[in-house]
Structure formats: C-alpha cells, structure tokens
User: Fold this.
Amino acid sequence: MKKLKVGFISFAYRGHAAAYLHHMVNMNNVEIVGIADSNKTRVQPYIDQYLLPYYEDHHQLLETDVEAVIIMSENVFHAEMTIDAARAGKHILCEKPLGISVQEMKKMIATCEENKVQLMAVLPTNYSSTVVEAKKAIDRGEIGEIIAMKGNNRGSFPGGWYVDKDLAGGGAIMDHAVHIAGVMNLVTGSKVKSVYAEGGALLYDKEIDDAGIVHLTYENDVVAVLDPSWSRCKSYPFPVDLTLDIIGTEGVISIDCFNQKNEWYNDQTMSGIWDYAGDDNPAILIRDFVKALLEDEQVSTTGEDGLNAAVIAIAAYESIKQRRTVHISEISN
Assistant:
C-alpha cells in the first residue's frame, strides 16, 4: 500500500495539531516524517510519544522527502510557511485562517498553482454530518431559495498567542468568524459581497477584540449575521458552539454542530459538563486530505475556500475601523 509522507510545521494550534497527529499515526496509508517547530518545548511530548524526528527550522523538514505538510503555526506565519512549502514541491494543509490579508492569501494560492501542489484549508465544521445533510436538503430544494442566515460561533477566552494581534492578526472575529463563514459559504454556494461589523474589547481587559457582530450580504443577495465572540464563561459546560439558522422561501433549517453530546453533573466540577459524542470532524478532514493526494483528486476545501472564509473577518475589521459597510472588492486588490 502506498503511504503518503507527511510532516507537521509548528504546533502553535496545539490541540488541533495533536488531534491530527493522533489520527495520522494510526492510519496505515500515512508515514509521519517529523515535526518542525522553533519552540521545541511545545512539541517535545509528541516527539517522545511517537518517536518522531524533530526539526528546529521548517526549511529542514522541507528538504526531506516529505510529500505533504500540515501547517499549524501562529496565523501570521501561515503565508510564509505555505509559500516555502509550495516552492519545495510539497502539498499543504493549512490551519484557518488561511492568511491575515487578502494579498498574502492570493500569493499563497498562486504559488501553489505555479508549483503544481495542492493547498487545502482547514475548515473542519464543513465536514460535520449536520452541515453535510443540511447542504443536501438545500440542494434538493426542501426550503426553497435561501434568503437569510443567522449564525453563532462563540468560545471561551483562549489566552496565549491567540490574544496577541501581532501573531494572530486579530482577536475573536479572526478566530471564530472563519469557521461559521466557511459553513455559510458552503450552503449558499455564493461569495460575500459586503460586510458591516461592530466589535471590540468588551468582555476582557485586553487590547484585542473579544466580541463582535458581523453582517453579511452575499452576491446572490442572501443576507446573514454572525456572532464570533469569546463570550463563553469558564463555567460554561462546553468550550465552543457553532449554530446556524438557514431561512428559505419555503422553510427553515437549524444546524447545531455540537449538539451530539451527553450531559452530566457532579459536585467536584460544580457545573454541568457536555461530553461531545458526535462526529470526529478532524479525523474526517484528515482522511479526506490524504485520500485526495494519494488518489490525485482535488482537495475538498481549497485555498480559494479558505480565502473566501477569511476575507469576511478581514473585511469586518476594516468595517469596524471605518465605521461603515465595506465591499469585498475594496480590499481584494
């Protein structure tokens, strides 16, 4: 059986990277070549557990016979690392947001095309069975034409580099808008035309946005609103949510991506706990990525998909700054 040789570049998104690594070491069609991260401390447990080679510089990993890399760095480094990997002839799976500016994302996509490698964007919620089944129902015409959507992707305050604008490129809007925007783009089959947003540091004493409301108008005239905030308190029984109401001319579909859960209580935690028992979206995404590369197929969430989701967050920040509606065409050149 042919094996895909895969390497990891950075474990800044430690939880995501650890989940992908765990799945891949148990796949019989994958060989893990190694992990590259300038911060050895955060990857040492995984190097030790899986007996993997370590590279301090991602260029060292790219000099090996690795065929594909998974980039899990701080957001500000996504473009640089993707372009380096593409020029080395490696396929890429890049964590969201794909980039922190439209210009750098366009360069990432163009460089991958020039070097004939695939670029897949991490949009794991698109693989949720609730989203997949909703998309099928919409395509069958069960709610008529979509006219509006209301979505939430709210989490708890993450701390660390996530709240450092120089590394993350933004706060809660950058962190959470991309996930729900990816789902909205998928179900509408359209692109966002304009964005109006309000947001700022409303919940925590940090100089970065922790809450916001983002209003969208699509090219096909669908209107939408989303809440991408860090508004979940520490005692909330689940770290994140992702819900979406899709209103059509003939019906409504309500999506709750993390509703497949067991709920329990005890006196030690002094709060309810939701034990998620639903789809393993990272596992589905990883298997899809590997399958596409081994079978020479198009990856399902492309660099363009990643750009179209991330541009919503970028436009939202511009809208907040200018206090007006921003058209995507204004920031795309």
Summary: Residues 125-279+311-331 form a domain with the Dihydrodipicolinate Reductase; domain 2 fold (CATH 3.30.360.10).
